[in-house]
Amino acid sequence: MNLTADPMTFANSSAASSSYGISEWPDTNALYERLAALLRQPIRPIRRENMEGVLRYFSERCTLSQRLSENASRVIPGGIQHNLAFNYPFPLAVSEANGAYLTDVDGNRYIDFLKAGGPTLLGSNDARVRQQVQELLESCGPVTGLLHEYEIKLAELVCQALPSIEMFRMLGSGTEAVMAALRLARAYTGRKRVIKIGGAYHGWSDQMVYGMRIPGTGRREAMGIPRSSTAYIQERFPNDLDRLRRTLQLNRLRGGTAAIIVEPLGPESGTRPVTRDFNYQLQGLCREFGALLIFDEVVTGFRVGMGGAQGYFGVNPDITVLGKCLTGGYPMAGGIGGRRDVMMLLAGGIGTASKRAFVGGTLSANPLSCAAGYFAIQEMQRTNAAVNAGRAGDRLRRGLEEIITRLELPYVAYNMGSIVHLQTSGVMLMSMRNPLKVMKEAGPRRHMMEEMGAAFSAHGIVTLAGSRIYTGLADTDAVIDDALNRFEDVLKLV
Question: Catalytic residue at 280?
Fold first, then answer.
């Protein structure tokens, strides 16, 4: 896209609406006003007598999950391997995943709006992909250590789909891919400083824990991480382009900026949404100051559309990070792609160019993961999964807004296609621009969000942290309408 063009010409065109799952970008200014109003109010939690009923569901109908959770706590730190598995009052143990539904070990069925954190766009355990993976396991097994045809097939598919990617390198996770992207950007530019848009989650590497989840927190989550590891990481608030420009100008005097890394919908998958032209402006700033633009499309790649968020916005990042979206939910999902001249610094093997950014990974690009990714992405293309999932997200958001209005609740629902946000406590919107409020209210607001998540689960809905909802291809109108009835039952408990 020409940098002088209207940045939203493509995103609002009929071509975009037919190819991408975001039918309309939210009015960001109006949305932030509503979210600010939510934060100014006292919390509106589920009434205590109603919460007792919610907790009875877990004690009476989730006894096997509770027992497994207790066993897990004896051998696994905190009883869970990943924050996605956290559920108040204890984690639910799943025995079956199929299409739009999860079933726990006690036989309770849930509408799955967690989608494993986003990657199961097709629905859980898609039969077509599973069949292809099973055939490969029979003939080849999961890993060989040598080249496999599906490495090439997957890389070709990724390069065809995502506009900015000319070459692609498979890795083991989104966290690994971000680490490689930062190393690559520094190697290519010869610079040290990286600016992240604060509040974003770019994995758990030493560098990217800086400014995680709540903008302005800096090293707050950096226990066990030397200060030297974050010495060249800077954060700037979403949408604050003036401050970002000043930082780039100052960095120029100190050797320059290697890269800006951003979640293109806004931190935490759009929990703090960016303005419609924010990514376009970032692209302009990066070109002006010679920094590389890194898009973290771990969630948005293929979920927003086959061209990712970059295709939707008409912005070409220099490096794209992919993760869980890449293999449709199968393991070892991660990779980076970008311009050929940048990516060639990752050339592997003995005897490659003396100037290179070393990136390893014995299990990266294993046949199982590459085949799963190849067939999952093909199936996403065939079914127009992103667009259909986006329509489900639109239907869900409209229904949630109607319920919130009718029940006269201060809550806020909005969506970017298949990524739906339901803000009830507002804890995810707090920032260190008001540190006293964070210190005083973050705990109660976080607990309210946990209770909301528990109430949703007790009514047959699994979400991410009680505030983020991913829709998918399997979420038909009937599934969404059933879910809306369940959401209403919960919101009536407030």
Answer: no
